[in-house]
Amino acid sequence: MSVLTMQETIIQTNNVNVYYGEKHAVKNISMDIEKNSVTAFIGPSGCGKSTLLRSLNRMNDLVPSCRVEGSIIVDGIDINSSQVNIESLRQVVGMVFQRANPFFKSIYENIAFAPRFHGMTNKRDLDELVESSLRKAALWDEVKDRLRDSALSLSGGQQQRLCIARAIAMQPTILLLDEPASALDPISTMKIEELVMQLKDEYTIVIVTHNLHQAARISEKTAFFLMGELIEMDETGKIFTSPENEKTEAYISGRFG
Ligand SMILES: Nc1ncnc2c1ncn2[C@@H]1O[C@H](COP(=O)(O)OP(=O)(O)OP(=O)(O)O)[C@@H](O)[C@H]1O
Description:
It comes from Brevibacillus formosus. By secondary structure, this protein is of the alpha/beta class. The chain has helices at residues 3-8, 49-55, 86-92, 107-117, 123-136, 140-143, 156-169, 186-199, 212-218, 236-241, 246-252; strands at residues 9-20, 23-34, 38-42, 66-74, 77-78, 93-96, 174-178, 204-208, 221-226, 229-235. The chain has a 6-stranded mixed sheet, with helices on both faces. The protein has a 4-stranded antiparallel sheet with strand order 2-1-4-5. Helix 4 (107-117) runs parallel beside helix 7. The model is unreliable at 1-6 (pLDDT under 50). The site of adenosine-5'-triphosphate has 13 residues, from strand 2 and helix 2.
């Protein structure tokens, strides 16, 4: 591997296997994810996309039956090492889920709560962080006059952008998005896609999506999974026009899945 490639790779998985009890959900996955890019995980339901995504910030630790083998290197650190602080890891590798899950608090507090908990107590600093996070999540103009309103008063699409702003406020380097637009209407989906394309200048983004058009529109690299295996990972344009593997071809042309 060249020095240049080393510098550009921010996540590297080596022979990663994930089990839920006896169930072998992710099989021997080795992949490199490039810094400041969007990587899409695609594949039929149950093929292990979310399981692999959740392994990248050790969310699977919360599932008692789950066991992860192999190494996952994030920014040069083996995240499964016993020395890794999980809280710090999840600050660096933020996550947004399929269903928006804002806190039952004001819009402002949704952003300010965790940074304050982690020691940022100066009000001006918090105000600035709230504004910059909401701006980066393309939500500021819609909420700047109602920051004290409940987050639950926002639309589903706004709530999802608020969750992205909340993750951004922790100053992550990587954002994991698990089907962030699948519960949203087409206009909100378009806003999330535009946002993802803007955010990649500053963050590395890995997105699980069932929407192949979405993967084609927003990602540079696409990884196709089938029954826990990584079948093919390549430039998105190549995956969608001339994939190497006939299973990829069958999936993207709608012949199964
Ligand atoms: N908490 C769990 N306990 C037991 N098995 C699980 C758990 N979560 C996922 N699985 C199993 O692991 C396999 C991979 O699931 P996963 O959710 O990662 O797939 P996916 O490709 O993300 O699916 P989908 O697109 O439907 O979200 C499936 O067979 C699923 O049933």
